[in-house]
Every structure is written in C-alpha cells, then in structure tokens.
Specification:
This protein is about 70% helix and about 0% strand. It is mainly α. The protein is globular, with a radius of gyration of 14 Å. It comes from Candidatus Caccousia avicola. This is Phage gp6-like head-tail connector protein.
Length: about 100
C-alpha cells in the first residue's frame, strides 16, 4: 500500500470522506508521525506496506487524531497490536 492508500483508509476510518486541503495535510502529517512513533517502538516498517503494516499505521494515526480532543490513553487494541508485532519480530530474529 502506498501513502495515498493509507490516507484514503485513514479518512474512511475517521469518517472524513471529503476533507479540505488543510485537513488532508494534517492527516498526511499524522500518518508520517505515526510511522515514526511505530518505528521508535521497535517495529520495522517498509514501503510498500503490507495490509498488517497499513492497519497498524492507520490505527496509530487515528489514535493521534482523536487524542487531540480527549485525554484518553492509547487504546488497548493498538497497544496489543504494537506489542504483538514487536514480540513477533524479536522471535523471528532469535530463530534465524
């Protein structure tokens, strides 16, 4: 999946189907930041993204967007997905 695909899916996730150019720029920036935060967690991402990578990026970017309006912590499903991905990568590294 490309960055454009990620943007389209993020817009659908947030129910922003016809955002203006300012909102589109914000969503693109959130996708970029989400990718950097995920990489900082220790997850390896590489374009073109797999469906699993894309879903993780979209979930994280959507969380960042929604977090602006609330003080809620990271959703459990996102933390769970990140942890599973990190553990999976570490397990693969130790078996090879």
């Amino acid at each position: 999946m490309t960055q454009d695909d990620l943007l389209t899916l993020l817009q659908a996730d947030l129910n922003l189907l016809s955002p203006d150019s300012t909102r589109t720029a914000q969503l693109q920036q959130l996708l970029s930041v989400a990718q950097q935060f995920i990489a900082r967690e220790g997850v390896t991402l590489s374009a073109p993204y797999t469906a699993e990578d894309a879903q993780l990026i979209i979930m994280y970017a959507a969380y960042l967007f929604r977090k602006r309006a609330t003080e809620e912590p990271m959703p459990r499903m996102l933390r769970w997905a990140l942890n599973n991905r990190i553990f999976s990568e570490k397990a693969q590294a130790t078996t090879t």
